[in-house]
Amino acid sequence: MRILLVEDDPQLGRATQIGLDQSGYAVDWVQTADSALSAVKTHDYACILLDLGLPQVDGMVVLTRLRASGFAGAILIVTAREQIADRVAGLDAGADDFIIKPFDLDELAARIRSASRRSGGRTREVIHHGDIVMDIAARSVTLKGVPVVLTAKEFRVLLMLFEHLGRVLTREQLEETLYSWGEEIESNAIQVHIHHLRKKLGKYLIRTIHAVGYVIDKPGTTAPEEPQ
């Protein structure tokens, strides 16, 4: 999942970015309203963490503009404002959750999962697909009851394919989810992750659509072609 963090405090912003990165998220961090609105135009974010006390333009204005522009992902307000009126205003303006600073990173990650699950139409934190069980909260995967060790990026690729079951995702769409600003992307990075997932979970799990991308078929569909 790719997240946009909008926080003007350098220390808190960097600490949050590092903490969420260690939890398996790709995090882009900006410090102003203009940068946030520009980033949303050029990248596909599943979730935005939005501070209200931004310089020049208040976070509530940013929230209103984001929803007015059609942004449908999860938006979590993260602020030091504790008044009930601020919470009500934020939720009424389209926020999915309201988190008071200081916060615990584990709780923040849980709230991100919850809000993203709702906005994405998922109802569960555990995904079952044949003999594969994926626990999103625990960041664990089992095959026929046996734990399978995945890297953070392999886990993200698998989750995105499961969340778009039956839909072909391009390499560019997968890269957009996996990598934040400044991360070096090898030209064959996605192909390598797919190769490793097939070795660990079965060579027919992920199907290659030539010159288009990758897909995990819905149960009961026609048997896939040989993977490439």
From TrEMBL:
Primary location class: cytoplasm
Tree of life domain: Bacteria
Cell compartment(s), UniProt: Cytoplasm
Signal peptide: none
Alphabetical list of PROSITE patterns matching this protein: OMPR_PHOB (PS51755), RESPONSE_REGULATORY (PS50110)
Modified positions (4-aspartylphosphate) in chain numbering: 51
OmpR/PhoB-type domain ranges (all copies): 124-218
Response regulatory domain location: 2-116
Keywords: Cytoplasm, DNA-binding, Phosphoprotein, Transcription, Transcription regulation, Two-component regulatory system
Transmembrane residue ranges: none
DNA-binding region: 124-218
Protein name per UniProt: Response regulator transcription factor
